[in-house]
Design brief:
Length: about 290
């Protein structure tokens, strides 16, 4: 007899630039900014369990599965909030903590899977609200949950889970990225001095095209004080051949656009290829 399980997937999100906005509570606190929802993200398999346990795995290019962590304070907190338990395995191909919005994706996919598994009856808006508030509380993200509810190139003009979002589906070519490791997101988001520089670097205009997004993101990366020496080297190489590129926020890496971008990035390390996502979180499979 097959054990009951539910599988859900949520795309990740690359933020090109952002500005923190403090609201009167966790739901209204978040960020404004722009980025791209990507078709790589987090797959979650949830099984019934009397206690909650979480296993985080990364799937390498060879297909080998690597255990990254044996727990997740974020997922544990979110499930505790809704009063349910489950055994959860999260799987991803992209590096964790590298600016791909995977903590938001893991929360959205986990809550979506458990909601179906346990018949909680939560709406997608309720799920997104819990995921967003958890991210803000743990300082692991500010606007990724809002973005990952659907696909496209996103411009968030209001903070919080219910803030307005404009979506354009105009990235027809592949995206490539390289990562030199994580940036400790809580340390950045919790630093008043760093947030002041981020606020000062925030663009005054909105991106109306893909080219605008990369131009504004690049200016923000340079002026915010977040750019690392490794990132600068890659961006100079992209500039030399007119490849649109900027820094993944918040991660020590670069994302670049166009069919020729991958060959430039490969000179600096392992390259990840993906595309703009067409939709947000979804249920993939239910067994019983």
């Amino acid at each position: 007899m097959t054990e009951k399980s539910v599988t859900a997937f949520c795309p990740g999100h690359i933020s090109g630039y952002f500005r923190r906005v403090d609201g009167h509570d966790l739901a209204t606190t978040g960020s404004i900014g722009a980025g791209i929802v990507i078709d790589e993200g987090v797959t979650v398999i949830a099984h019934p369990s009397r206690t909650t346990d979480v296993h985080i795995q990364r799937i390498e290019r060879t297909g080998h599965r690597v255990d990254v962590a044996q727990t997740s304070p974020l997922i544990l907190s979110a499930l505790n909030r809704i009063g349910v338990s489950a055994s959860i395995v999260t799987e991803c191909r992209l590096p964790i903590g590298a600016g791909f919005g995977l903590s938001a994706a893991a929360l959205l996919a986990s809550l979506t899977a458990v909601n179906q598994l346990e018949g909680c009856g939560m709406s997608p808006d309720t799920i997104a609200g819990i995921a967003h508030e958890t991210e803000v509380a743990f300082r692991t993200g500010l606007g990724d949950v809002s973005a990952c509810q659907a696909g496209g190139r996103v411009v968030r003009t209001g903070a919080g889970i219910k803030g307005p979002i404009e979506r354009s589906y105009d990235l027809t070519q592949p995206l490539f990225a390289i990562s030199f490791g994580p940036i400790h997101t809580p340390a950045v988001l919790g630093s008043p001095a760093q947030m002041a520089r981020v606020t000062a670097a925030f663009p005054v205009s909105l991106p109306e095209s893909v080219a605008d997004l990369f131009r504004l993101s690049r200016e923000f990366a340079e002026q915010s004080g977040l750019m690392t020496p490794e990132v600068k080297k890659v961006l100079r190489a992209c500039d030399a051949v007119s490849i649109p590129a900027s820094m993944t926020m918040l991660g020590n890496g670069v994302f670049a656009y166009g069919t020729h971008a991958g060959s430039v990035l490969r000179a600096f390390g392992e390259v990840y290829e993906f595309h703009m996502a067409q939709r947000g979180v979804l249920l993939m499979e239910t067994t019983s």
